[in-house]
Amino acid sequence: MIPVISYPDAATLDALFSASRLSPENRAISDSVSRILGDIRQSGEEALLSYTEQLDGVRLSRLEVTEEEINSALDQIDSDFLQVLKTSAAQIRSFHSHQKRNGFSFSPGKGILLGQMVTPLDRVGIYVPGGTAAYPSTVLMNAIPAKIAGCREIFMATPPSPNGQISPEILAAARLAGVTRIFKAGGAQAIGAFAYGTASIPAVDKITGPGNAYVAEAKRQVFGLVAIDMIAGPSEILIISDGHSSPRHLAADLLSQAEHDKMARAVLITTSSQLALQVQQSLEEQLLCLPRQEIARASLKQRGCILVVNDLPAAIQIANQMAPEHLELCVDSPFDHLPDIRHAGSIFLGCHCPEALGDYLAGPNHTLPTGGTARFFSPLSVDDFVKTSQYTYYTREAFLQAAPSVAAFARKEGLEAHGRSALIRKEEAYE
Known about the structure:
Its cofactor is Zn(2+). By secondary structure, this protein is α/β, with parallel strands linked by helices. It is 47% helix and 16% strand. The strands form three sheets. It has a six-stranded parallel beta sheet with strand order 1-11-10-9-12-13, sandwiched between helices. The chain starts with a strand and ends with a helix.
């Protein structure tokens, strides 16, 4: 049963938040990933095929998905679900199109022009978990922003099933989202292929997408050679209720995250002791109907809790401390409290906006910072698939005026050649 904690003190909250942070590096996982990456770096395609056989249980002669396989998937997919995918893709595209930004230029003085260009990354690699499960939503959430950004090549890697295939839903989502090439590769070995390149998979500039602990660790180890989006941990939801919410709705929303993983965290903060007990009871009732009951029950028992507090400002203060991945404001006037939220990955406003809506259909991205990293990380966006370059232009006259200041600054830092590179132009101007 999920614990109910009434009016928690600072020590209790500190313990809760420390447990929410990303777990420290696991040496066994780190060493295993390091070996895998080393093999991919040294042996390339041969090592990737070997690990696919060893870890995914399938021997492949070709890693890239063919056009025939994609067309076959589109023929197999349920037409009603295909329409759902199209609706979701349209919503995601609509939201993310507002994120696209242009460069700028301005003149701070006569003869001077300063500016910044925004250019898309050339080639990105999207990792999509797979094998026994299929996550077409992850395809859409990663590939559509990259497409809007203008990336020339969008690669996708996902583990094959034991029969060597990728689910039709994944392939259909990839086609809708504009993925350029798809590869049957999973785990740390796929991250290594994206980072180092193999005979069939060219190296990419950035890797995005979620994965298990091995994928997360592989992204951590290749960062610097390539860019990554973030190191994601177990999923989280924090719900704030003023006591006017349906306990059944709140319990269902908590379970929507608890069923992800035994390490997932589901927390409710409410001003009503009565509601806390009602939610606790509803959780027990709803758990009995869940196919993933064992996972959800373990998550609630080990990582979940219901906190009873005095008022909504106290609840919001705790939320800002926790900096959750998902935050539901199940209160009567959510927009009144929105300006007070400083740290959260994605915020769901009101009693009719469950987090699951954001996972699949609403449009905002569901690739979000976890483990308290919403204090400094943002959701995946178009910005993740672009970079900026700045530029400077001075006319001859404008530079000659600035040269003495440049030289003075350089010499103060002990860099005489820097100073001379400015002054030599001024000296020549008067020869």
